[in-house]
Design goal:
Elements: H1 10-22, H2 27-39, H3 44-58, H4 66-83
Helix pairs in contact: 1-2
Length: about 80
């Protein structure tokens, strides 16, 4: 992870530190989260929640072999081509 040196007004840095402490975080994490939000990147909590929802949605699907699915798709596609 890279380290950077930035300049900002003392009052702003104090507010950042107070807010980070209030959230049980630190300055670096607070600024990383703020930058991600500003750039439109999802938070790690949002990503984890999305992964959890996806796993739950797929939990009832069961196991499958992707190669078999691909072969079946090709067979259907080829059968359609032969009818033309």
């Amino acid at each position: 992870m890279a380290k950077v040196l930035i300049s900002m007004p003392d009052e702003l840095l104090q507010r950042i530190d107070r807010e980070a402490n209030a959230r049980g975080s630190n300055r670096s994490r607070f600024l990383q989260d703020a930058a991600r939000r500003e750039l439109g990147w999802p938070s790690s909590d949002a990503l984890e929640a999305a992964l959890t929802r996806g796993r739950e949605a797929l939990s009832s699907v069961g196991g499958f072999e992707s190669a078999e699915l691909i072969r079946e798709e090709r067979r259907i596609h080829d059968a359609g081509d032969r009818r033309r």
